[in-house]
Amino acid sequence: MLPDLTAIRTEYARAGLDERDLDPSPSRQIEKWLRDAIDAGHPEPTAMTLATASPDGEPAARVVLLKGVDVRGLVFFTNYESDKGKQLEQNPRACVNLFWVLLERQIRVTGSVEKVSPEESEAYFRSRPRESQLGAWASEQSGVLEGRAALEASLAEVRARFGDGEVARPPHWGGFRLVPERVELWQGRPSRLHDRLRYARIGEGRWKIERLAP
Ligand SMILES: Cc1cc2nc3c(=O)[nH]c(=O)nc-3n(C[C@H](O)[C@H](O)[C@H](O)COP(=O)(O)O)c2cc1C
Fold first, then answer.
1. What's the pLDDT tens digit per position in 153-181?
2. How far is the centre of ligand 1, averaged over its atoms, from the C-alpha of 136 (Å)?
3. Could you tell me the CATH superfamily of domain 11-212?
4. What rounded mean pLDDT belongs to the chain?
5. What is the DSSP string of the chain?
6. How many A from CA of 10 to the centre of ligand 1?
């Protein structure tokens, strides 16, 4: 039997968030909160929920890992032929959400999505463990498998194909960059009166900051 879910609640009281605390640059602000999460020993500090939508509005969300952040945006890597890859090809809009429960913080970033350069994808692919490189070839991500054995067989075939040689990057594997238009920071506060501050892009490198009702 499940416990009474309506009775499960956490009171957030670690900190507040003031306009004065914010860096004028949202990317530097994201870096700051990411560093705080890493320093706090948060599990999977770079895990973020990525929401996409098909052109006719069917939504989908899943977790991916943030692999880079700078003024250009947030980078993650995936299979371009996966469900998310196809959705982003047809409708290059996305929203990501990072939640760090230990810090009682959430960041939401909304914007357009573009592929990173092949050089960027190549550089990250080269840094991955060999088994992950082989896995990128072995798995037709989001496709239906007859069973686990089919995946293992595909991996064995890929392993034999590459032998001891370098594993090339699959052409269908690479990075996407989410180019932010809105960046919202959420800091939990007592009695659900949380702090929400949002950067909205008003021009090239120019942002206005608004406070939102919790
Ligand atoms: C913690 C965590 C990290 C993940 N990181 C990635 C990632 O960086 N890239 C990726 O393609 N899938 C990642 N996944 C798997 C995705 O959540 C998802 O199952 C997969 O990408 C297929 O999604 P799609 O069918 O919607 O395209 C991760 C899952 C978890 C739970």
1. 999 999 999 999 999 999 999 999 999 99
2. 12
3. Electron Transport, Fmn-binding Protein; Chain A (2.30.110.10)
4. 97
5. ----GGG------S----GGGS-SSHHHHHHHHHHHHHHTT-SSTTEEEEEEE-TT--EEEEEEE--EEETTEEEEEEETTSHHHHHHHHS-EEEEEEEEGGGTEEEEEEEEEEEPPHHHHHHHHHHS-HHHHHHHHH--TTSPPS-HHHHHHHHHHHHHHHTTS--PPPTTEEEEEEEEEEEEEEE--GGG--EEEEEEEEETTEEEEEEE--
6. 28
